[in-house]
């Protein structure tokens, strides 16, 4: 349904200066930013309630040099953050793009807190792989559902129009300039809405099996843990308009989704000293490299299943996350006082699990590094009561997309901006490079918030200049 139609002779029912497609974090932030510039804004959301992939995430946004970090005594800077992003992605991302979002995201969070009352705080009791400073920021429940609820509340309070159950099925263009959109309602009726500028905030293509098979074949059969509406519309529209794309194989996976419950289990269970074993009770990788690349590794195990094993100390840290509390509430987190008893509950080989945990104890006591290259130096031992969660690997969202400039304007293959088209979040090329291993924790919401604010501001200013 991602069509481009000629605008010649088309009459629009009404026209709005800035139209935003998608009501996730990127779209809501873009709408707030455009509204602040005095532009009329309309958000078009295909669902009955704006949620997007944001609602399925932990809602954590990495940001350097914030006041919350300073209050916690955490030293950080945009330059340090940018270096971490580039190191994790092995130098693949465009340094200018990385610097752009690394510099923009901290001020964007403080703006959301000061102007719209979002009560951010920094996660200061554990670190994520690849981050050299503790810079993850979240709301009290540490859930994406709370983040999108509060953003939606801010948009409503600002008087910005949000049209739900409004599926954009076509763009009307005059050459490379977008003149409006076709909106299809649940009953099949359509209406045409004109726009001065269009912001694509409808994420990537994770929900489009054909595009996943083409660009990320290793996860073609994986559990998809993103929003089903992520059908690649922004990518397909952009390509049809002549936009440049980059790193289309880039994506975020996750190696710790409770199965069959389908609940995200925080990676703090690993970074704080937990391990993963397969159904044979044996470890199979360096889990500490990152949760994104771990998705495909878990899926290569027998039955595509692993067990995340940790202890009560780690569980207590994990309980700051609403998702983990839900997993405990439904009984997805097993508890036992000995490895043998834990193995019985897991229905795996008790001797193998006991031997695996004994080897971990030895490595931790010695501060050693295992055969997979994971260092256990400074890692606290696992002590009873033990915990375990049955997990699988999943695809969360794609990271490649449309190439944008410093104003989040979509560029063509020659590097020239398309006249009035902007992209943010998963619709734009992210900063993770072409591989799952390039994903640094939080990169998805990083570009949603940073590019969302940039796109909204720039689109509103451009429309204002054209009408003056």
TrEMBL record:
Alphabetical list of Gene3D superfamilies matching this protein: FAD/NAD(P)-binding domain (3.50.50.60), Succinate dehydrogenase/fumarate reductase flavoprotein, catalytic domain (3.90.700.10)
GO molecular-function term, one example from the UniProt record: oxidoreductase activity
Gene Ontology biological process terms, A to Z: steroid metabolic process
Cofactor(s) recorded in Swiss-Prot or TrEMBL: FAD
Residues in FAD-dependent oxidoreductase 2 FAD-binding domain copies: 18-434
Matches recorded under SUPFAM superfamilies: FAD/NAD(P)-binding domain, Succinate dehydrogenase/fumarate reductase flavoprotein, catalytic domain
Keyword match Flavoprotein: yes
Keywords for the protein's UniProt record, in alphabetical order: FAD, Flavoprotein, Oxidoreductase, Plasmid
Name of the protein in its database record: FAD-dependent oxidoreductase
Source organism of the structure: Azospirillum oryzae
